[in-house]
Write a structure and sequence with these properties.
Blueprint (H helix, E strand, L loop, with lengths): L3 H10 L12 H7 L5 E3 L5 E3 L4 H6 L7 H4 L25 H8 L15 H5 L19 H9 L2 H4 L9 H6 L2 H7 L8 H5 L19 H5 L4 H9 L1 H7 L8 H5 L19 H10 L2 H7 L5 H7 L1 H7 L8 H5 L19 H5 L8 H5 L11 H42 L3 E3 L3 H25 L4 H8 L4 H28 L1 H10 L5 H12 L14 H25 L1 H4 L7 H30 L9 H4 L1 E3 H7 L1 H10 L19
Antiparallel strand pairs: 1-2, 3-4
């Protein structure tokens, strides 16, 4: 716009206006009361130059003239004034404040174009006293004023130093809630950080410096500060031990929540693990200050700790026994865990508690006079469990083994039908071995702390060996998959199997009929062919699962190759699919496949078909009557061992 609208207004309506320098604001407002008046700021951006008369009059500067702040106008004789004026210098009147501000964190950052100035926090023509709730610097409005900078993503995305988005976190906290309810004592930004004298946290003079923060909080929480200062944490911090926690280490910084808020770090469900455990479960701090081994773990393993982990809100936490702020060493007579006070501490929850009961929950129990006895009890029980449960497994294994032998003997002389030829038995055997090894070695990577992984480690299978074994098994899986595909397409028996395993139109009817039969709704069993719907579903699920696992496995095995042609997120997606497909396949085998070949009442203790390739005639008649009828009609004779690509009719062995 430049000066064209301004000239137009002046020439058409204000020809006889006096020049600058008169002692009222009429000259300035003759132009600046225009709501559409625009100009350029120092960066060249278009801004609105309108000044509301009522707003200016209601401000703290309402009785001042424009030239009192825009001092370069007082000496101007040209009309209208130049497009660019000097920046207003507030120190003309507020020199003491300016001196304090210049030494602050904001003042020292003025070489940064994003650094705040007086205008950023107080406004321009609308400056109100900070006691006014509508003032930009009032307790109510100050968080929003500060958010002009501390809410911007540019502060959280700095490539070198990350500054948290403190505004959003503060607004979720109890202090912001108090301000919104009109509680005058609720803390706003300046209560903790200061105003014009705001210092960075590392500065020893800063109100939020590690050493000074408790004193800052004491402005509102003096009673708690007195307790903290008397406790071991406050004394340690005052002695210069910066590892000792202050208020923010336990309660958080800006997002300070109510104690009964489940997200608060000092909530009963979180305080032991996320507050006390930060230090008392830190190996370096334990060794550095001699805090005592296993104190935190002994609590976690106690009833109290286990109950809290299980969701209890009434079980004792660390602060229940040691207090929250007035934490004192055991030898201090005023300590809540001093021998003279321990019973009274326990009686807060256990009214009938005595000294013996109170002593039984001491952290020192495991490390003092009972440590040897307790250790011997553990060793004895571990040996007993290994021997007793091991002997039970051995005993039951003998019975199971005998049952398998007896079943094999019973079926050996019965007429059989060749269900799988030697090639098919071989394929199944390789698939079984590779699947089990892949599952074990794959889950061992995802769950390295599982108890069964320690067994692998015990026999020397750590990550280097695990990864090699997993990849070798993957190659074997690919090999047997290709072998099977060639068998299906090239061998006559394979083509017959492919045709037999394909879904038929009547499959859904057979599923419904089978379920109705086993629910006792009908008496007629479904007539299955060579493969029933459960076997077909398992087979095609295996085919699909193998394709998925092979592809995602290759992406994870050769990520640099695949990310050259696929998006970057493809590796993470492949990892997720690989994991959950493995879970799906493993659970399907255990829940579905093992049931039909091992745990089914008619198959227990195990079907031998996967080893011999044979099914008894009675089993074929019972479960696959249509297939048996087809075999009989084709007139195939059993015992034709040289014709491995053909089924055999029933025969005695």
């Amino acid at each position: 716009m430049r000066v064209v609208p301004l000239l137009f207004i002046l020439l058409s309506t204000c020809i006889c206006l006096p020049i600058y320098g008169q002692d009222d604001n009429e000259t300035c407002m003759s132009c600046h009361e225009d709501p559409e008046l625009e100009g350029l700021d120092h960066s060249g951006a278009t801004i609105l130059m309108f000044v509301a008369v009522d707003t200016l009059a209601a401000s703290v500067h309402g009785d001042m003239e424009c030239v009192d702040c825009h001092t370069d106008l007082a000496d101007m004789d040209d009309y209208p004034h130049a497009e660019e004026l000097a920046t207003v210098d507030c120190s003309t009147c507020h020199d003491e404040v300016q001196e304090i501000f210049s030494a602050s964190a904001h003042g020292e950052a003025l070489d940064n174009p994003r650094a705040p100035t007086c205008v950023s926090c107080h406004g321009t023509h609308n400056i109100l006293p900070h006691e006014n709730p509508e003032a930009l610097s009032s307790a109510k409005m100050l968080p929003y004023t500060c958010s002009n900078c501390h809410h911007k993503q540019i502060l959280t995305n700095d490539p070198d130093v990350k500054i948290t988005d403190s505004f959003d976190r503060y607004m979720r906290g109890i202090h912001a809630e108090g301000i919104s309810k009109g509680i005058g004592s609720a803390a706003s930004c300046n209560d903790c950080h200061g105003m014009h004298d705001l210092k960075p946290a590392y500065d020893p003079a800063s109100m939020v410096n590690k050493m000074n923060l408790p004193k800052t909080c004491s402005k509102c929480h003096n009673d708690i500060y007195t307790q903290y200062e008397r406790g071991i944490h406050g004394k340690a911090l005052k002695a210069g031990i910066l590892d000792s926690p202050n208020c923010s280490d336990c309660h958080g910084e800006h997002e300070i929540l109510k104690i009964n808020d489940p997200h608060s770090p000092v909530n009963v469900s979180n305080v032991s693990v996320y507050v006390c455990g930060k230090c008392h479960n830190d190996r370096q701090l334990i060794e550095k200050y001699g805090l005592g081994d296993e104190r935190f773990s002994s609590y976690q393993d106690s009833y109290h700790g286990l109950a809290i982990q299980g969701g209890s809100v009434t079980a004792a936490t660390c602060v229940s026994c040691h207090e929250a702020h007035d934490v004192l060493p055991q030898q201090n007579p005023a300590s809540s865990i001093h021998p003279d006070n321990l019973v009274e501490t326990c009686q807060k929850c256990h009214p009938k508690a005595n000294y013996s009961f109170a002593s039984s929950y001491s952290h020192n129990i495991a490390a003092a006079q009972y440590s040897v006895l307790n250790r011997w009890i553990e060793v004895i029980y571990i040996i007993a469990i290994v021997l007793i449960i091991g002997s039970m497994l051995f005993h039951n294994g003998i019975i199971l083994f005998r049952s398998m032998i007896d079943k094999n003997r019973r079926t050996r002389g019965l007429p059989t039908v060749k269900r799988f030829n030697g090639n098919m038995v071989y394929q199944h055997m390789v698939l079984t071995i590779t699947f089990i090894v892949l599952a074990i070695t794959g889950f061992a990577l995802k769950y390295p702390n599982a108890w069964w992984v320690s067994i692998l480690n015990f026999v020397g299978i750590f990550e280097p060996a695990r990864s090699v074994i997993h990849r070798i098994s993957a190659v074997l899986l690919i090999y047997i998959s290709i072998h099977h595909a060639v068998f299906l397409l090239a061998a006559r028996r394979g083509r017959e199997e492919l045709k037999a395993i394909w879904f038929e139109k009547t499959e859904w009817k057979l599923i419904v009929q089978n379920l109705k039969y086993h629910l006792g709704m009908i008496d007629e069993k479904p007539q299955f062919n060579q493969y029933d719907y459960t076997e077909k579903a398992e087979y095609w699920a295996l085919v699909w699962g193998t394709i998925v696992m092979v592809f995602t496995g290759f992406v994870l095995w050769f990520p640099t190759t695949f990310t050259a042609i696929l998006p970057a997120w493809s590796v993470k997606v492949a990892e997720t699919v690989h994991l959950y497909e493995a879970w799906l396949a493993s659970l399907a085998i255990v829940v579905f496949h093992f049931f039909f070949v091992i745990f089914h009442p008619e198959q227990y203790p195990m079907s031998f078909t996967w080893l011999t390739g044979d099914m008894t005639v009675s089993e074929v008649k019972e479960h696959h009557p249509l297939w048996y009828k087809k075999i009989m009609e084709e007139g195939k004779e059993s015992g034709q061992k040289g014709k491995s690509d053909e089924h055999s009719t029933p025969s005695s062995q």
